[in-house]
Amino acid sequence: MPDFLDICQVDPVDLRAILDQATDMKKRRAGLNRGAIDQDAPLAGMITALIFEKPSTRTRISFDVGVRQLGGQPILLSGGETHLGQTESVSDTARVISRFADLAMIRTFDASSLHEFAVAADIPLINGLTDQSHPCQVLADIMTFEEHRGSIKGKHVTWLGVGSNVCNSFVEAAAQFGFTLTFSGPDDRAPDAAALGFAESHGTKIRHQPDPERAVADADLVVTDVWSSMHDSVADKDALNASLRPFQVNEQLMARTKPETLFMHCLPAHRGEEVTSAVLDGAKSVVFDEAENRLHAQKGILRWCLQV
Ligand code: CP
Ligand code: NVA
Q1: In this structure, what are the phi and psi dihedrals at residue 72, rounded to the nearest 5 degrees?
Q2: Spatial CA neighbour of 172 closest among 129, 219, 139, 220
């Protein structure tokens, strides 16, 4: 059964099937209580291990609720509660969890831990964020865009600020879903070379436009993320913020966009840094739809991994 490790590793046909199923499941649940189990209960009798080595609100709740709605049972393991990576190797932990669970999701630091887990485990593994990528987030974002504006194919997405883990997954998604991506941020904070290389090898050129006003002018979607991620150690936060200030998403910048342009942020946001409250809470913002769609998109991913 397949792992869901990165957007670049999943066939575009499967990515589309995951989103189609997610949309269908979301529609069919309309009006039900959040804890009600989906009629077909495809994960009945199955255990999903949800492992968090970093903090989480959305990923934790959406996977827990998603597994329950699919009729399965989640086991949450966080931080220092297990031996993982501290007093036991990642691969030994993966082999043990494979004896108890049918599926695992892990949020970890370097992607090498994700891959070590995936190789050692006998069960499918989902990437719930690493230092390098956040594929579940970006599938939820594409689902959200398409709910509001139709197919993302041929559309223009502009990423502002830092080429974070979420940005890397957007770069891969540009190639897999056929949209244009412009990065507008400092040269030394560009997305990872591996993600850019994947996009280019699939004929998708990621544009770099250092002028944020020009970068957003014909964007259908403007996206940003925190300027320092959970894994970043920042020596001088004031200096970092000052260097990134030109790339803040504020009302003045959003005034340069088309009337139909949407704004997204994976959350949690640092209000007043990478984005202002006026934009986050403004008419173009769909950030809470994105947060909700983590649930629906991940239910599609869970089913795809288990082929149920
Ligand atoms: N967007 C996201 O992954 O949020 P959490 O860190 O709260 O899970
Ligand atoms: N880039 C952020 C995303 C959080 C969901 C981080 O890794 O902290």
Answers
A1: -95, -175
A2: 139
| Residue 107: active-site member | yes
**Does the annotation count 305 as an active-site position?**
no
Q: Which residue has the tokens 């691969």?
A: 91
| Contact call for residues 119 and 109 (beta carbons, < 8 A) | no
CA angle 300-158-127, nearest 5°?
A: 30
Which ligand is nearest the CA of 298, by number? 1
The catalytic residue among 58, 60, 68, 294 is 294
CA 260 / ligand 2 centre spacing (Å): 27
CA nearest ligand 2 atom 2, residue? 229
pLDDT in tens, 145-190: 999 999 999 999 999 999 999 999 999 999 999 999 999 999 999 9
Predicted TM-score (pTM) of the model is 0.97
Asked if 29 and 193 count as a contact pair (C-beta separation under 8 A), the reply is no
